[in-house]
Peptidase M23
Amino acid sequence: MPAHGRPTLARRLAGSAWTLLWLCVLGACLLWAWQHPATQRARFTWELARSPAPETLPVPVQGVEAGRIADTWGAPRDSDRSHEGLDIFAPRGTPVTSTTRGIVTAVRDRGLGGRQVWVRGPGNESHYYAHLDHWAPGLAAGDMVEAGTVLGTVGNTGNARTTPPHLHYGIYGPGGASNPLPRLLATAPPPSPP
Ligand SMILES: [Zn+2]
């Protein structure tokens, strides 16, 4: 019966068109979700956690050579505290840059560290940048940063009020705090022969 042929074909075409439309909508939704900042952050966090902790790190204060940094790690502090970081002295306002890629976990003004930034980097290590004069404009928890991203400027906030401006830089890994200096020195260029 040829009379039935045409409506069936039209119905099939309409069905295919609907299927195609739904696939397009689904595709658009998946693309949107994939590119959504929350998804990107989740992917980045996962990637960071799986990456090994870097063996070498750049100096987080612009213009400072690793070889000129005094090893202040473990120096005694008041009562039973010891210094769990490095003090990197530089003029007030010198840019402080992230040593690794990572996610900013805190931007706050609190306690001994004063104005501080925390970055969760590769290998489940948290990087602590303290005594900042100012934070980088607009920097906020949840931001994704690269090595070299400016986090703030050198200052003497917190318990550094009575000392010359410096960055207190600390690294806290799964095994506790570690001295950043060996890794900063590992990136320093070898001394030129006499
Ligand atoms: Zn310090």
